[in-house]
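Students often ask why we bother encoding 3D structure as a string. The short answer is that it lets us treat folding as translation between two languages. Here is a chain of 224 residues written in the first language.
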Amino acid sequence: MKTTLRLLTIAVSALIAAGLFSGCREKSAGSEQVMQRGDPVLKNDTPVYDETTHTFSLTVHADSIGDATVSYALLDGDSIIMKSDDGKFSGIIPFEEGYNVRLSVQWEDTTIERIIHVMDFIVPHEPVEKMTEDELELLINACDKDLRRSKNDHLAQGVKLVVEDTKMTPPQMLPDVITYIENGVWQKVEVTKVEYDDNNLINSVTLKPIGEVVDVDEDEDLEY
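And here it is in the second language, the structure alphabet:
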């Protein structure tokens, strides 16, 4: 009888131990699966410009994705421009505002998405010959059409404008300066300082008006 009871106790203990071991294995496997998923991170290389096609290529990378199925999409806002399974895109049209890139990481029971915004899709410029203060002043006072449309090749994007000695609301851009001249608010301007970027493009202009008419109603009389 004692022998039978002892054998029964051993058998029960073995079953309990086996159950605990199995539970530990399942817990460990579950933990491993969670670790494999991680928290996906999307990173990008610097876009590369192709002078032959006048387009860009881009490579993006995803970390902490485990054994998931991964896909990428290049977006203009919410619209898909192109897709990729390996994070490599080519033939991207230059776009100063940049593009969004979306990462989709899919496991059997869940999908995680990440989005980053990538800039630097601007065509690199070769250095140009510097435009002098006098040359820019002549163009402004002549109300040059290309300058009015911000199409002059010697000007950088978003030129900083500083206006001195004016009682009017200072213009924010060079085309607005031309508007003031065309509407008779200023007879002309004197350009006192220009600054350049690394490609000799003008990125800052300081000027002051000559012959300012201060009784003009800015809201009603100026025609843009």
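Translate back mentally: The longest strand covers residues 55-63. Keep this in mind for the problem set.
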